[in-house]
Amino acid sequence: MTYSEVIKQDHPEGTMSVKAFKLVSAVEREMLMGDKAHINIECIECCGKNLYIGTNDCFIYHFLLDEKISTAGKVTFAATKQLHKYLGFKKSVTELKAASALTRLLVLCDNTITLVNMMNLEPVPTGARIKGAVTFTLNENPVSGDPFCVEVCIISVKRRTIQMFMVFEDRVQIVKEVFTPEQPYAVAVDGYYLCLALTTQYIILNYNTGISQDLFPYCSDEKRPIVKRIGRQEFLLAGPGGLGMFATVDGISQRAPVHWSENVIGAALCFPYVVALDDEFITVHSMLDQQQKQTLPFKEGHILQDFEGKVIVATNKGVYILVPLPLEKQIQDLLASHRVEEALVLAKGARRNIPKEKFQVMYKRILQQAGFIQFAQLQFLEAKELFRSGQLDVRELISLYPFLLPTSSSFIRSHPPLHEYADLNQLTQGDQEKMTKCKRFLMSYLNEVRSTDVANGYKEDIDTALLKLYAEANHESLLDLLVSENFCLLTDSAAWLEKHKKYFALGLLYHYNGQDAAALQLWVKIVNGDIQDSTRSDLYEYIVDFLTFCSDQDLVWKYSEWALQKNEEVGVQIFTKRPLEEQEKNINPDDIISRLNKYPKSLVKYLEHLVLERRIEKEKYHTHLAVLYLEAIFQLKSVATDNCTETTELLFKLRSLLQKSDLYRIHFILDKIRGTDLHMESAILYGKLEEHEKALHILVHELKDFHAAEEYCIWNSENRGLQYRQRLFHMLLSVYLNTGTSDCALVMAAVDLLNNHAAEFDAALVLQLVPDNWSVQLLCPFLAGAVRQSIHTTRMTQIALGLAQAENLIYKHEKVKQKGTPILLSDKKVCQVCQNPFCKPVFVKYPNGGMVHTHCAANRHLNSNMIHRSSSSSNQT
Amino acid sequence: MKKPDGKVVLLGDMSVGKTSLLHRYMERRFQDTVSTVGGAFYLKQWGPYNISIWDTAGREQFHGLGSMYCRGAAAVILTYDVNSLQSLTELEDRFLALTDTASADCIFAIVGNKVDLTDDCALSPETEDENRPEKSLASCGSIKVRKQVRAEDAIALYKKILKYKMLDEKDVPAAEKMCFETSAKTGYKVDYLFETVFEMVVPIIVRQKAEGSPQTVDITDYKPAKRTKSGCCA
Ligand SMILES: Nc1nc2c(ncn2[C@@H]2O[C@H](COP(=O)(O)OP(=O)(O)OP(=O)(O)O)[C@@H](O)[C@H]2O)c(=O)[nH]1
Ligand SMILES: [Mg+2]
Question: The CATH number of the domain where B179 resides is what?
Fold first, then answer.
C-alpha cells in the first residue's frame, strides 16, 4: 500500500471525486432567527436525535432531528424545535457539550460552564459550575472509569493554565491543574494525554506525569490552530502550509499528512474520511490514501464538527448535515469509474466498520468486480491476482466468451452482475487483436487453475472451455490436454473439434472416453485422405502403435488388415511389438500366421519375431521360417541372376537360422534345396545330420570355399571336445588330399590347413596321409608345431609322472609310520568299548592308541558318546 | 493498516531528489515530481518486517515537521545533490539537529544524488539501470559538469555526525560504507542504498521489539515542558 503525497489540485468536481457525502439542510434560518439578521449561530451540539444550538444573543435552542430516507434512498432531515432558552447574559453561548449519561448539557458562556438539563434546559438546582474557562473539551477516553462522571478539560482564563475537572450530575470537582510553557489556544484529550496548541507549537502533555513531548512548531497567532482527537491516542492537527498532520500521543506520525487549503477553519472525522472546512469549500480527504476525494462548495461556513459519526457544518445562519453515502455505494461508484485501486483501499479500510461475514462477502465481490475492470483493460496480471484473491467462480469469466461453456452447464451469472459486459465481442468492440489477447489469457488462466481448488465442482466446464480455446487457436496443448487426465465433456467437445476439423484430436477424445472404434475410424479416414487433418504426418505409424497396444482384439483384427495393406513391414509391428503378456494371454500365434499368409513379408517378420526374439521352440515355426526364406530366395533368384543385396541378406538369415536352430525338419529342407545352387546351405544341413564328409565335400569341391570349410569344422565341433574337432579337421584334410586328381589348389589348401591348424591334428595320423613327395620345408610350420607339441606333451607327461611318484612316496612314508611297533595282545588287553579281551588277532587301533574290537568300532556310530568317554578314560590310564 | 515495525526517514534540502529516489526504489521508475508537501510514506516489506519509509519535504516551510518524522527512526538517510555544495552544508546546518529525536542507535547514511549529471564516468559499468542505452544516451549526451561535492566531503560530514552524536567510529558502520552516490534518474546504486540500509535496520528493529513497543520513544527522550525558540512558521 502506498501513501503518496497529495497534490492540491483544483479539480472540477467529478473528475477525481468520490461522492462520499451529501450536504443536507437540517435547520433552516427561519426556524432559528426568523428575520432577525443580527442573530448568529455560535456553537452546536448533537447527541442522538437532540440538536442544540447556541447563539450570539445568549440563547440555546433544542431541536429533535428526524432522519427520513425516501424510497429512492434520498436522505432528508426534519428538525422540530423543542425549546429555546435565554441564559440571561449579553454574551454569546460559545460552547455546548452534552453528557448524555448524566442528561446534562455543558454550556460555556461568559467564561463559565454551567450544567443544564438536556431535556428542559434548566440549570441544575445545585448551581454547580466551572468558572474561568476560555474553552473546554470532554475526555472521550476517560481515565476515571466512573460511568456517571465526565472528564472536562478547560483552558483557563489564568495564563498558561489547563485544568481538569470531574463533572457529575450536579456537582463538579477539580482534579488537576497543569501549567504549560506557553499560552494554550486549543486542546484535545485522550486518557491522560493532552494535545495542546500553544503559541508557537503543538505539544503532547501527559497531565498525570507532567512529561511533555514537542510535536512541531506552529504559529497560533497567525493561523487558528486545530486540535482534534481522531481515535485512540491519535490526533489531527492543522500544520504549516495547510497540512492536516496526524500525530500520536507518542509524538510520531503514522499517516502521511493530508493537504488542506491554507485557511482551513475546522476539521471533522467520518471514517475513512477527514472533512475540512475553509471559507469556500468543504473538502474530503481519505485517511487511507491521503487523497482528496470530494469538494463541496460551501460559503460562510464557520463550524464543522462530528458527533458520533454525524458530520455537521454550520454557517452563521443555518445548520447542515453531511450525510455519508453508504461505503458500498461509494465503492461501487469508484468501480464504476474504474478506479480500482481506490475502491480496494476504501473497501479494505471499511473492514473494521462492517461485520466480518458481511465484509468478506462484500470484499470478495469487490475484488471480483475489480478483476473484471482490469480484465477489460487487458491488465491480465492484475486481473488474475484479483480473480484469485476474490475466489472468482471461473465460469463467470468463461461465460464472457461466447460458446465456451458447455451447453449442459447449469451456470448462471451472479446477480447483480460483476461487470457491464454481455460478452467478449462487446468488451473488445470487435477488435480481433484484443479478442486474441483475451483468449490467450483465458487459456493460461484456465490451464493454471484447472488443477487447483478453484476448479472443484466445475472441472467439466473448465476443461471443455480450455479444449475449445485450444482447438480454435490451433494450440499444441490441445493434444496434451486430451492425452492426460481431463474432464472434457464428450458431446460438446466432439462437436467443437469437428467444427474446427481437429479430427486427430477428436480421435483422442473418443479414445479417452473409451470409444476406440470411433477413434480408429476417424484416424483411418484421415490417413486414407477422406478427411483432412495434418496434425500428425506420421498418423499411420501412430495408428499401428495404437493397435499394438490396443487390447480390443476385434479392433486389432479389423484394422490390422488395413495397416498391413498399407505397409506390410510396419503393419506387422501390431503383432511383433505387442506387449508380451498381451501376446501370451490373448492372441494365438497360429491365428496371426494364418492371417498374415497373404502378406509374406509380414509373415517372415512375424515368424522371425517368434523364432528369433521370443525363441519359441516349435518345429513348425522354425521350418516355416526356413521355407519362407528359401521361397523368397528362389523367387529373387528367378528374377535376377546377380546376387543382389536382398538375396545376400536373406541367405545370411537362412544360414544363420539353419546353423543355430536344431528344430526345423532337416530332411524337408534338404529336399527343397537339393538340385539348387545352395551349396553352403546343404553343407550346413548335412552338418546337422552329422554327415560331415558330404558337407565338407560340398564345401571343398562344389563351393571351393576352403575358408568356409575350416569354419565348418570349427562351428560343428563347438562344445564337442578336441577329439571331435580333430576328427573333423582330419576329415577335411582327407577331402583335400584324397581326390585322385592332384589339384594344386587343394594341395595348397591342405598345406595351409596343416600349417595353420597344427593343434587340431593328430600328427601321427596326418603323417600317414601326407604324400611322400612333400618336402619337409613345405610342412615345416606344421611339423615344427607338431614336434614341439609332442615334446611338450612328453615333458608334461614326465612332470606329471614325477609328481605322481613323489606323491606316492609320501603316502608310503605315512604307511610305514602308521605301522610302527608291533602290538602284543594278551588277556590283559581289553577292548575299550566292551571291556572284553580280544579273542582274535584282529582289532582296530585309533590314532590315540586306543584299541577296540572291529565290531565295536563298527558300532561306534551308534553310540559315539560312549566311545568318546571310553577313549578319554583310556587316555588317563 | 499494517503497523510498521521500523522507520527510515529521508532528510535533505528541497529538490535534492528524495522523492525521486524513493520513487525509483519503490516503483522502479523515474518520473516528474512535485516538491513534496508535508511528507509521504511508503511501506516496504523487508523479510518478516514492515519498514515505513518517510519522504519528508525539504522546503523551509515544513522544516518544523522534521523532528516529529524522525522520532524513533531506526535510520536516517541524509540526502544532498552532488552538484550543490550548499545542499551538503545544509545537511549539517539545518537537518542534523532534526535527528535528535531518532532512536538512540539510529544509523545514518549520507547520499549524494544526481551523479548522472556529473562527468564522473566511473559509474557507467556499475549502473543498475535496465535501460542502459537510454541512460547512456541521456547522461552522456547531455553536458556534464564537474562534480561539486567530492566523496571525501560526505565522509567528512559523516565523521562530524559521529562527533555530534558522540559516537565512537569503532561502534558504527564505517564512513565509506555509509556514504553513497546515487542517481534516481538512472537507478544507479539506488537499490544498493536502500538494501544496505534495510539490512542494517533489521537488528535495530529486533532490539526495539525486544525492548518494547516499536517506535515508542525512550522515556529519557521526553523533555520537561520548556519554551522553544525554534522557528515559527515561515
Ligand atoms: N538528473 C537528475 N535529476 C534528478 C535526480 N533525482 C531527482 N532529480 C530531479 O530533481 C528534481 C527534484 O526532485 P525531487 O525528488 O522532487 O526532490 P525532493 O528532494 O523530493 O524535493 P522536495 O520534495 O522539495 O524536498 C526533479 O526535477 C527531479 O526530476 C537524479 O538522480 N538525476
Ligand atoms: Mg520530495
Answer: 3.40.50.300
